Records
---
Amino acid sequence: MLGWLAERSGADTLLIDGTGAVVPSDRRPRYTADRAVLEAVRSGVRELARRRVGSMAVDVHGHRVFLYPLDPPSGPTTPVLVSVAPRSGTDGLAPLLADAVSTLSLCWKAEHAERLCSRAESAEGRAREAALHLLTHGHIAAARQASETLQPQLPETIRVWAVEGSPASRGEIARRLRATAPNAWVVPCTRYDGLLIVLAPAPVQVASAGPPSPECAEKALGVCWVGVSDVVALEDAATGYAQAFHALVAARHRAGGRAAFGTNPDLVLAIGSAVTDWAADFLAPLRAHSARRPQDPGSVELLATAASWLSSPSQATEDLGIHRNTLSARLRHIARRLDLDLDRLADQSALALALRALDSPYLTEHLGRTPGAAPEPGESPLRRLDDLLARPAVTQWARTQLQPLTATAQPSPLARTLTVWLHHDARVEATAAALSLSTTAVRKRLARAETLLRRSPLRSPADRHDLWLAHRALCLAPAVPEG
């Protein structure tokens, strides 16, 4: 429109916003290239806003400047249509500009509304990301507060979906999901470009076995992979997220691209109520910690740091909003307080189990508050962990977890690789050296083991801690006699 006006009138025609800045145009200015003329234009814009009038004309250096605020004139933020031409060539220009103002006003309103809509959508998306982040880190009350103005409201019980497609198709998949599942939360995952996290409302009693076949997964998603968790309480959104992610691992290797989380007993439930007392004793030095200075982390922050780092080491700084040096300092403090070596997978796994045992309301509800056996004086919590893992129920749990790799009498190459990888603290390079393989070969074997186990040992949220605990439990179990 501005280009047409300039061609028709032979004048410099431009828009100036409320700050006095010229709206970019691909036309080269002629008359407004004069600094004195441009300053007169900006002065006229300010005067127009002050007076709140519908138009103005200013003469300067043999030029005439016409100023028309886009209708309606609403103050200093309203853009102004400006036309500058030699005074001798302005006949008929004023009516032409007055007629053009209404069309330009509609264009500006449409663009302004589009920008506001885009900003609102971006703000809502960030609010949902923040609420999901709070949920997966156990801050349920804060998540509910952050989501109060968002629709739909967070349900009490949910299934978590992990929906993966190409990064380019994620926006379209999200749009289809929102259209066909309006009661679900659809949140882009901040860790992986092609992943969407869906919090779908679910009834309390729903069978979780078998592949998922919700209507929106079949009709709206198209070519992608879908992993679905068990039904969990909202307070256990972190557990649901991990389940959905591990189901997604299995979905990638199925013809239909859909998988539900395999129903297996949780390790904490397999151990029984004694795990709560063990975990309380294990974490006591950290829970009793109090910050010496206001800027130092307290026990709650240290526990949150440990949980975030164990779940996703590479994303912990982003999830916690801290610098990597701050994370390293906190981890050293945690290791010192608990007398752990966090470079060892064994110590990481013990800490992960202790955090799960105390922080999950769902597990607490199942375990109750029955106290376990009192620890022996001076007995190390790490030593007592072996006693818990040696229980028959835990042995059975471990066999269930690793059965796809241990079904044969002789250890398979995949089982051997996983065992060596766990023994070398989940380090691929050390595992490759021990097995005389390349790192690429080790990663390929772990990927095949991932398919069979339906658990992800490499990608976060990784299952390496449960895998280590299962392997340790089998090492502690009595040998099964042949026959």
Note: The mean pLDDT is 80.
---
Amino acid sequence: MSSHFSDAAMKPLEGAQLVGAGLLLAAANFIAVLDTTIANVSVSTISGALGASSSQGTYVITSYAVAEAITVPLTGWLANRFGTVRVFIASMILFGVFSALCGLAGSLGMLIAFRVLQGLAGGPLMPLSQTLLLRIFPKEKAPAAIGLWAMTTLIAPIAGPILGGVLCDQYSWPYIFYINVPVALVCGYIGWRMLKRYESPLLKLPIDKIGLILMIVWVAALQIMLDEGKEKDWFASNEIIILALVAVAGFIAFLIWELTERNPIVDLRVFRHRGYTASVTTICLAFGAFFGATVLTPLWLQGYMGYTATHSGETTAMSGILAVLTAPFVARLSTKVDPRKLVFIGVMWLGAVTLFRSFNTSDMTNFQIGWPLLLQGIGLPLFFVPLTGLALASVDESETASAAGLMSFCRTMSGAIATSLVNTSWENKSIYYHAELAGMVDQFGDVSNALTQAGMSIDQARVNMEQILQSQSIMLSTNHIFMMAAISFALAATAVWFAPKPTRVADTSAAH
């Protein structure tokens, strides 16, 4: 294998082949990231088609995110054991197959099961696409290659809601999954032919089986508890109590095992670095707030503001326009300015915009909803780009890969947990506000009298008032979530100052 690798290294790709390989790897990263957001605006449509509630429909988002988070820490071991190229191509083809099965699912349970498998396959695509880009491109062209990769990472979440909305409205929801199939299969076939010369030597490293099992147990128990809690009336249900106990016991056992294992699946020892701990705390609080608000926005727009999936997707995606434009500038700036300052400014900007959004009203125009989302995009690169560098500059160089994988795991889990918490809190708060407003509406019968005098029957008047009451309850609940997200951003901005000023600029190529 090592001689094969040496021969391959003497015959690098050139010209059009090199560009083609770069585009192929970028496409792999694109579809993996795309699927984290493509279902966001389609939750209502999918739920209706499969006979489930909107809250159950959010499992379509969280199941993929959690499964993806679980395989990210495994990527290094898989690449060493089976070869980087083999794992990448297998992941790509399996991603296509499971995408097709998602589209063919006839029930929510089947769809969630296939989304889990899709997430497991998609997890290695992001880190390995970046690894292979750096392997095939000459050093002088590596920054351009990473720039291409980074652009797909930023563009894919923007394209997701738009593409999901258009496919749902113009065709039907399965097409949001079918769209991956030709890309994955064609890239898998061409990728093997172009990249097999770059296969890495195999290393038979031991895998931390106990650690992997414990991680799956506590993560799965926690996510199921969060997803099912509202339906089961939380701790009034024995099932939720059992899941909570399993999650806590599993997490404690996982911590003890990973801190004492020689070859841990997740190297928790990197948390001994204060800068890394502060950075991960910041990214969890800020990304959780951002992702939770991003999931909530299309649910609110489609469910209560009369938006179609396409219109909702276009509005939600506005946050990415300025993010793409400002990312190259921020990347250059982050090597010259204290990254803590940039992160603080970026996160506070996101918090300020989200705070402004907590004063929304139910009669807002599309422009009034859209322009804060557009401005929000300025803060995203200021948050993501320098924070990655700050985190990885805080650990020893030998720990960079494991630190990057753990940070990705924490970020993905924070997004999945936030989705569940936002969904539960949104519905619970709307019920609370409905009860509060109901006692204050039309206490003296003036409104019902006015409506009946306008030609409505008493039943029609009551229905009309109930619709207004429900709309205002949802609006107040939505604003409450945005307020909580703004507070989370403020806490995140504070947390970054617990990191000491970095003494070196980290190689962020291991980050994903």
Note: The CA atoms of residues 93 and 185 lie 5 Å apart.
